[in-house]
Design goal:
The complex is a heterodimer.
Chain A lengths: L3 E9 L2 E8 L14 H5 L3 E3 L8 E3 L1 E3 L9 E3 L4 H5 L4 H5 L12 E7 L1 E4 L4 E2 L16 E3 H8 L20 E8 L16 H15 L4 E6 L9 H10 L3 E5 L2 E6 L6 E7 L3 E7 L1 E6 L1 E2 L4 H8 L24 E3 L9 H19 L25 E6 L11 H9 L4 E7 L5 H14 L3 E6 L2 H14 L7 E5 L1 H5 L6 H21 L6 E4 L4 E4 L3 H11 L5 E4 L21 H14 L3 E4 L2 E9 L2 E8 L2 E7 L1 E4 L3 E3 L13 E3 H9 L3 H4 L3 E8 L13 H15 L4 E6 L9 H9 L3 E4 L7 E7 L2 E9 L6 E6 L1 E6 L1 E3 L3 H8 L26 E3 L9 H19 L3 E4 L4 E3 L9 H5 L5 E6 L2 E6 L9 H5 L5 E3 L4 H11 L2 H14 L1
Chain B lengths: L7 H8 L15 E4 L3 H12 L4 E4 L14 E2 L4 E2 L2
Parallel strand pairs in B: 1-2
Antiparallel strand pairs in B: 3-4
The chains are: A alpha/beta, B alpha+beta.
């Protein structure tokens, strides 16, 4: 429900009474087709909020071209709404969708649970004069720049200056705008995303304009996420890209060319001023402006920054039962976290409301399928206007006429919006009436709407694979908007090719696979246990495997988190809950020896405490955790005063005298991380160091503590602890990777000390620190079983040998292999709260599978023609899903494709030397038919003749 | 959004008759998600797929949130739509 806000909330978990307030859109949603004709005729120009007010839009318009719902709305700038002056749109709209009489509507709903996903607001640099935003024309925010880069942006993907519409050549980014500052109006926390989004903008700028000069003025570079370190290196490697570690201030505008002068300083050159054509402010993330008001409405507590007050043992919860929080309302987060906390919140709603699940879902019933495979093709072609998206460029009526001339086409028709419910019904009706047995849709990309149109065919009693979509929008009208005649020809070409392919299409069967309701969770650390408990709470049996004697994983070695959560207490609670839960079955000292099966029905063989168990399960969650790198440097293992941060934490918890009474303690960061061997950041060590330092300072305020770092990566709200440590006089000294600190054991005055030496770039000379204790931020590395388990479950690893998720942003807790999910540090190093969030997320995603009785497998899979197969095995090696194996046949050993595991990517087809393996729905006949139709024989002859003549 | 497509049924479910048909019940299995950005959409999709009725409440004209305004996303430079 759009334009809707929550007005009142009453009641308790399980029974909330909500009053919603819906503002008028002045458009009847059911009638609007999103054709945008009204926008064309509207006389009012006003700044377009979607494009950050850089370009204009009309008083009536669709928010953006892919908006959902794709329905226009009327803004307060409308002349009719102001003083009833103009109602052109009402006259123009063919469907009568415009309704100026709409008023605010109040609706009451009852819900059992609430999820708050308020997200963030970009920091507004206009609140502070010093940023020059709004005052200087060529100072933009990163959000503005994002729109400038976008092809749907104000200048259609051209980056232009506000002052003269020229392309800027020299562009500067200023980092931490509104973040990591304790000054009035700014936020003290780190927003966590700006370093990497700036690198993205730099890379995209260089893609747009090779000669662009990009300069980034930054504090620490916080590339703490998965693959971020490599991304940073990629941005840095471009010619003309400078990363300058300096505070930068906007000095003035050059009155002649409106360029912006920035003042900054470097160690080598001191204070400098430099002019840039454009300056981008890398703005941070704020909580929603009205978060206080929202919190009062829902009765939840907020933290000092205005985000939800975190319950450390379960960050998805709020202080009010039944109200959950997902996404950046937990605190500044990136997209993957927003996605898995959403799944996590879903899972916790599921725990609460499981008894009501499925009462509202309805079964679809389709008419029986008619077998038309023996009939001559009778193709129907439907050409969509897509409002004005296609028809403003392509001549649709003449394209319909053209389609009727094509072989096998018995019917053709134009439609304003083929995807509209009534148009889809029309296709169904006409298919039946005209006896169509194949349908071609001249419309958009199959990506979004193919499922809908397949459904339309099923409604007509046709096999759903008798559909072909001719993409005349993305591939034609959108890219050739200025060449209308040629675009019409091209649309006809595309449709002709599609019709040729359609004639070859074969009916394919999808099949339902039963889903075993049990889940297998591999790994009994915090992630695995949290996930197991959440799945079990929703009525499913869970088999939990732990390779050690005891549950707990690496968290057994942690005393508290930086926020002060008692890890051991939480762990004991979890372990008790797991053992007490009748649905969770734990196998200790477990090793997986074999995994077979597929989504919905896996069989995993496990060796546990001398027994062999065969476990049948529908879903698998891999939570195998990570371990600590054993340093080979800095006298580790040689000198007993050298610890890792984990060990140091254990010693502090024990109040070990040698540690807590040390006069001087030196911590060295990035030991085994961010180097050639492990080209990634271990993410947790900076906060780990700060946590240990604060604890030590609280026990022994006189201790000299030095933290030698490369970039302090206390991202998000952890920044406050970094500041607290600095205020406690913990000394932070930066070192460069080329000049790492040296540690040597020396005896002085009868006392053995560790002498740490390093050059200090700030002071400009070498430092010598005599330490009693040295602690190393040893890298977090994948646990040794990761590779083996990845092989068994047929999932892939990323370059750093952590598990590789299906999509880094949108599918962060699942694998490309269906039915296998992941969480915790096996995915990448992370803090405990992040693991908990992700564990609930994995449970939520697993439930979307386990709550169903069956899953559908696609009919577009590969099949082997045994007669042509020469048993070379090339396809077996090529398949990344392990879907192909040898099977004994009367003709000998032949390749066989398991249709359930096959993803239909066709890689094997390309490898097969004898063309014995075929991807159904993309057969050679279908594709060659389509290609042959692209250029007619006549056309080829004509071109060849022309070539001869030229010669 | 690249990989997730709102199923038509889900959209219809959102926009359908708002008065719950189950007003006789003491407890409600429906869930309200407030905020239609990437997180709110994901939560709604998961819950709907797992068999719950969801009300997705968005104060603006379209769902999609700030992510819809982004050009591409790091570190893969995938389109954020």
């Amino acid at each position: 429900m759009t334009f809707t806000e929550v007005d009142q909330v009453e009641g308790e978990q399980g029974d909330f009474k909500i009053r919603l307030k819906t503002k008028p859109r002045y458009i009847i949603e059911e009638k609007c087709t999103g054709c945008s004709t009204c926008t064309e005729y509207c006389p009012v120009q006003y700044p377009d909020a979607f494009n950050q007010d850089i370009s204009g839009n009309k008083a009536v318009h669709v928010y953006f071209s892919q908006a959902i719902p794709l329905v226009a709305y009327i803004d307060e700038s409308c002349l009719y709404l102001k003083d009833k002056k103009c109602d052109i749109c009402r006259g123009i709209c063919k469907t009568g969708a415009i309704d100026f009489n709409q008023t605010v509507q109040k609706t009451d709903i009852n819900v059992g649970a609430i999820i708050l996903s308020y997200g963030i607001e970009p920091f507004d640099p206009g609140v502070k004069d010093e940023y020059g935003y709004g005052r200087l024309q060529n100072v933009v925010t990163s959000m503005d720049y994002e729109r400038l880069l976008s092809s749907t942006g104000p200048y259609e993907g051209q980056v232009r200056r506000t002052s003269d519409r020229e392309h800027p050549k020299k562009i500067a980014w200023i980092q931490c705008v509104g973040s990591r500052r304790v000054t009035e109006g700014d936020n003290s926390y780190c927003s966590g995303v700006c370093c990497t989004y700036t690198q993205k903008q730099v890379i995209l700028t260089k893609d747009h304009y090779q000669d662009a000069e990009c300069t980034i003025f930054h504090n620490d570079i916080r590339s703490f996420g998965k693959d971020f370190e490599r991304y940073y290196q990629r941005a840095e490697a471009y010619d003309g890209v400078r990363f300058i570690r300096s505070y930068a201030s906007i000095e003035k505008e050059n009155p002649e060319n409106n360029s912006v002068v920035i003042r900054y300083s470097t160690f080598d050159d001191g204070v400098k001023e430099e002019e840039f054509d454009m300056v981008v402010l890398s703005v941070g993330l704020n909580p929603p402006a009205d978060s206080r008001m929202l919190a009062d409405k829902f009765g939840i507590e907020l933290n000092a920054h205005g985000f939800n007050k975190e319950i450390h043992s379960n960050p998805v919860k709020t202080s009010k039962p039944g109200v959950f929080v997902s996404g950046a309302f937990q605190g500044p987060t990136d997209i993957p976290e927003s996605v898995f906390t959403a799944s996590g919140a879903g899972s916790q709603c599921g725990e609460l409301l499981d008894y009501r699940r499925g009462n509202l879902s309805r079964e679809r019933i389709y008419p029986p399928e008619t077998d038309v495979s023996q009939e001559e093709p009778r193709i129907g072609v439907f050409v969509c206007h897509c409002g004005a998206n296609i028809s403003s460029v392509v001549d649709v009526p003449s394209t319909v006429e053209y389609a009727l001339t094509l072989p096998n086409v018995v019917y053709a028709k134009e439609q304003l919006f083929s995807c509209a419910t009534n148009s889809a019904q029309e296709i169904t009706e006409l298919a039946k009436e005209k006896g169509l047995n194949r349908v071609v849709l001249g419309a958009c990309s199959p990506r979004t709407l193919e499922p809908l149109f397949r459904d339309t065919l099923r409604e007509a009693g046709l096999n759903q694979y008798y559909l072909d979509m001719a993409n005349i929008r993305e591939h034609c009208s959108w890219v050739h908007s200025k060449q209308k005649e040629d675009a019409t020809k091209k649309a006809q070409d595309i449709i002709r090719m599609s019709v040729a392919r359609a004639a070859w299409l074969e009916p394919l069967q999808e099949f339902d696979l039963p889903v075993n309701k049990t889940a297998l969770v591999v790994g009994g650390g915090i992630g695995g246990m949290t996930c197991a408990l959440s799945i079990a709470a929703q009525g499913h049996e869970v088999q939990l495997l732990e390779k050690e004697k005891d549950l707990g994983g690496i968290a057994r070695r942690l005393d508290t988190t930086i926020e002060g959560m008692d890890v051991q207490k939480h762990l004991n609670d979890l372990i008790t809950k797991v053992y007490q839960n009748p649905r969770i079955h734990v196998s200790h000292e477990a090793t997986i020896t074999d995994v077979s099966g597929y989504v919905g029905s896996f069989v995993t063989t496990v060796e546990t405490e001398g027994q062999i168990k065969k476990i049948k399960h529908g879903a698998s969650v891999l939570a195998t955790g990570a371990t600590e790198y054993e340093p080979e440097e800095y006298l580790y293992k040689e000198n007993d005063a050298v610890y890792t941060h984990l060990e140091l934490g254990e010693e502090i918890a024990k109040k070990e005298e040698k540690v807590v009474n040390a006069e001087t303690l030196v911590m060295i960061q990035c030991v085994g991380s961010r180097d050639e061997k492990r080209n990634y950041c271990s993410r947790v060590c900076c906060s780990h160091a700060v946590k240990n330092a604060i604890k030590l300072k609280k026990i022994n305020p006189d201790m000299n503590i030095y933290i030698l770092f490369r970039d302090m990566r206390t991202y998000g709200l952890r920044e406050d602890y970094y500041r607290e440590a600095a205020d406690m006089d913990v000394k932070f000294i930066r070192y460069e990777p080329e000049e790492k600190p040296q540690v040597e054991a020396v005896e002085e005055g009868g006392r053995s000390i560790l002498r740490v030496t390093l050059p200090d770039p700030v002071l400009g000379y070498g430092l010598e620190l005599d330490a009693d204790v040295v602690s190393l931020a040893a890298a977090v590395i994948p646990s040794e079983t990761t590779t083996k388990i990845a092989g068994q479950f047929k999932v892939t690893l990323s370059p750093d040998e952590f598990f590789k998720e299906a999509h880094v942003k949108l599918k962060p807790v699942e694998f490309a292999a269906d039915g296998v999910f992941l969480c915790g540090t096996a995915h990448y190093p992370k803090h405990i709260q992040e693991t908990i969030n992700q564990a609930y997320g994995a449970a939520g995603r697993a439930l979307t599978l386990l709550s169903h009785d069956t899953v559908v497998a696609s009919g577009s899979v590969c099949v082997v023609n045994e007669y042509d197969c020469v048993s070379c095995g090339a396809c077996i090696t090529a398949c990344t899903y392990g879907a192909i194996e040898f099977k004994e046949t009367p003709k000998g050993k032949k390749a066989w494709v398991n249709p359930v595991l096959c993803k239909g990517d066709g890689v094997c087809n390309a490898k097969c030397p004898t063309d014995a393996i075929v991807l159904k729905h993309f057969t050679d006949e279908e594709i060659f038919g389509q290609i042959d139709a692209a250029v007619t024989d006549e056309e080829i002859r004509k071109q060849m003749d022309a070539a001869f003549e030229d010669a | 959004m690249k990989n997730e497509v709102l199923p038509t049924e889900t959209i219809q479910e959102f926009s359908k008759g708002l008065v719950s048909k189950n007003s006789g019940n003491q407890n409600f299995g429906d869930v309200m998600v407030v905020g239609g950005g990437v997180s709110g959409i994901q939560a709604s999709l998961d819950l709907a797929t797992a068999g719950f009725k969801v009300y997705l409440i968005e104060k603006g004209a379209s769902i999609g949130g700030h992510m819809a305004q982004l050009d591409k996303t790091f570190p893969t430079n995938d389109c954020s739509m």
